[in-house]
Amino acid sequence: MEIVQYTQDMSRKIYAFFQKVFKENSRTFEPNSKDADILNIIDNYILNGNFWCLINSKKDICGTIALRRLQNCYEIRRFFVLKKYQGCGYGTNLLNLAINFAIVNNYKILKAATMSNGYIAQHLFLKSGFYKTVRYNNSTADIFFQFEITMSSAYKFKLDYLKNKFDTSLILNPTENVPFVYDTEKTNFFSGLYVSERFKDVNDKVIFAGRNEFIDFFQYIKNEWKKELGAQDVDLKSLSGLNAHLIFFLCVLKHSDKVMILPEICGGHFATEEILKSIGAITYQMIPDNKNLCVNPEKTLQLIDKEKIDYVFVDRSEGLYYEDFSWLNNATHCYKIFDASQYISSILCNHFKNPFDMGFDMIITTLHKNYPGPQKGLLAVKANDKVWAQYLTHAKTYISNTHPKAIADSLLPLVNKDSFNIYCNTCRSCVNLLENSLIDYGVPVVKRSSELVPTQHIWILCRNKFESYQYYLKLESLGLLTNYRLLPYELGYGLRIGLNAAVLCGLKDNHIIDLAKIMSDAYYNDITPQLIKTCHRFIKRVKITA
Prior knowledge:
Blueprint: E1 2-5, H1 11-24, H2 41-44, E2 49-55, E3 61-69, E4 74-81, H3 90-104, E5 109-114, H4 119-127, E6 131-133, E7 143-148, H5 151-167, E8 170-171, H6 212-229, E9 233-235, H7 242-252, E10 258-261, H8 272-278, E11 282-285, E12 288-289, E13 294-295, H9 297-307, E14 311-315, E15 335-339, H10 344-348, E16 362-366, E17 377-381, H11 386-398, H12 404-409, H13 412-415, H14 417-440, E18 458-460, H15 465-478, E19 480-481, E20 483-487, E21 492-497, H16 500-504, H17 512-524, H18 529-544
Parallel strand pairs: 4-5, 8-19, 10-11, 10-14, 14-15, 15-16
Antiparallel strand pairs: 1-2, 2-3, 3-4, 5-7, 6-7, 9-17, 12-13, 16-17, 18-21, 20-21
Helix pairs in contact: 7-11, 14-17, 17-18
C-alpha cells in the first residue's frame, strides 16, 4: 500500500472509489450537487490545499484524504478508507500525512466535520490532537473538530505519532535496543550537571563546587565495571559508537601509525577506515575467508608481521559467529582493540569468551545495543600501559562533560542481575528458535555451522537485491522492523535480524512460532489486511507480557 498525491489520470478511479465507499457507508453519492468537488479535484483541492490517495499494488484507490482552504482555516475533507482496509493503520497514516503537510506549510488552524455515526474518524481526530468545536459550515455533518497548530501542539502531535508507531511495532534489528527498561527516575537529578572525570584542586583552571562526591560515585561505578570485565581500568567519558572510536584514536595515534582493521567485507563497520584515514593513519585490512565466513588467520598474521602494524582494531558490526581471535596472541608488537558492542551482554553472562582472554589489550563497547543501557561508551583495558596513559592524558582535550546521568544509569542492568541474566538467556534461546523455525518454513536463512559459536544475528538472503528489499518493505508494513543491508563475505544484499530489543519488549520462546509464521507468510505472499491485523494482534500480545 502506498499514499500518493492525486493526479488527473486518476479521475475515473476516484469516481469509482467514491461510488463504492459511499455505498459502504450507506450514503448517497451525488456528483452533480453536494459531491461535485470530486469532479474537479485539481481546482478544488490541489491549487489551495492537497489531495492524497491510498493505493494498492494494482493501483486501485483504497482510501483518500484532502485539505482545502476556507476563509480563515484549512479543512480536512474526503477522509475515507474502504472497510476491507480498516483496522490496518491506513487511516492513521492518511491523517498523519495531512497534518504534517499543514505543519510544514505553516497552516494555523485545521477543521474537520463528521457524521455522528463516523466513529472511526472521530476516534482518529481526537487521538491526533483535534478537539470538538462549534459548527462552521452548513453541511449534513453534525460533529465538528478543530486543531490549532502551534509549536506545542505540533511537537506533541509528532511525538505522540512516533510513540504510537513504536508501541505498534516490534524491532527485529540487533543494533538497536530499548534503553532504560529499568527505573531511572532516581538518577534524574544528574541531568545537566557538569561533572569532571577526576578530582580537581587549587591548580586547576576551572572547578565546579559540590562535584567531588559525584566523582567518587563514578569511581565506584568504574570499579564495578572493572570487576565485571576483568579489567585493570575503565573509562566512561565518551559517548557511544563511533564517537568513542574517534576520541580514542585522536588521543593515541601519531601521524602515519599503521592500523589494521576488520574490513567491511568481513563485517567490520563501514566508517572505521575513513575515520582513521582522516586523522592521518595508514590503514590495512584483515584478509577475508569468504568460504568459511571469517577472517583468514594465517594470511592476516603474515600481513601484520610484514607491515609492522601498530594497532589492530576488530570492530565487528556483522557476523554469524563469535569469532575466536586468540591467534592474534602471535602478533606481539601491536596494540589490539576489540569492539564488543554487538556482544557485550553475552560476554558479561559468560556466553562468549572475554576479549581479554583472546589477547586483546582494550575493549570498546556501547551500552545501548546488545546491552540494555544508556547511550554511552565504555573503554576497558587489560593493563595500565603507555597507550592507556596517553589516552587518559589527552581525552580531556576532546571531552568536556561526561554526561553523568548516563554513567549513573550504566550499571542498572547489572544491579538487577537476575533480570539481566534472564534477558541474556531469552535472547539466545529466541534467536536459536527463530532461526530454526524460519528454516523449517522455507525462509532463505543463511545457514551456519553447528561447530562454531553462533552470534545472535540471523541473516536472510533472498534470490537478489530487489527481492531482499521487497521483503524488508513487506515486514516493515507489518510493523516488524528489520535491517536491510549489504551482507559481508560477498553474499549480497539481505536482511539482518536480531531480537534483543524485541525481548526487552516482551518477546519470549512461546511467541517464536507465531513470529516465524507471520514472517513466512510475508515472504511467500502479498501483504493482506488480514495478515496486518494478525501481526498487530501478535505485537500487542508480545508487549502485554513485558
